[in-house]
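Continuing the batch. This is chain 6 of the set; chains 1 through 5 are on the previous pages. Same settings as before, nothing changed between runs. Recording input and output for traceability.
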Amino acid sequence: MANRNEIEFQHPSEREFARLLDFYGIRWEYEPRTFILETDENGAILSAFSPDFYLPEQDIYIELTTQSARLNHLKNRKIRKLRQLHPEINIKLLNRRDLRSLAIKYRLPDPANVNEKDNSSNHA
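Output for chain 6:
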């Protein structure tokens, strides 16, 4: 199982999600794979996607987002493209409402109220 104390998560909600997975003994990997979604005619990568978590025993990728629903279009588009290119990949998007429900149920910090780290990298 990954050690969440040694990982630099992109957002505090990811650390809390890892904590929840650890509590239940669910094995996870953080951003273990990047999927190329689009290349140009020379093979240069134009678009790629690295889901936040992979749960190997469940064979599912989990992407978290704390953005409002109206701002999720980019992540939703990347997930649709991933499913189109790799129909064998199982992926689930947990949105702000899903994360709030988990936070309430498991008494975790509300992901909408935590301060986001400055994230200038392309982590969509």
